[in-house]
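Please review this pair:
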Amino acid sequence: MNSTTLFDHVGGQPFFDTLVDRFYDGVETEPPLRAMYPQDLEPGKRALALFLGQYFGGPTTYSDEKGHPRLRMRHVHFAIGPDERDGWVRHMTAAVQQAELDEATQTQMLDYFDMAAQHMINV
């Protein structure tokens, strides 16, 4: 990558907004996974897009608005097992693949998503 951060490399926050829209399109097709989300998906979409932008080197808007990410704590009230993890990873992987990124960028993102999803398992 020629840019300083992955955030810059992929084009900034609009990339993450689109990525999250694609991810949620997939979530909406899988009733057991969709049931874990509130009826109004917009606040969650915004939060996830801002978190990912920040994680991958963008502005700290997520932390400025919501504080420390504390991902596991924020998701502890959901029963997340291997099936839920696999569904989440499947839809995020599809969203990343639709972005047609270079191999190194795609691998970096998917490695993070796999690690983060594994960490969220609580049952």
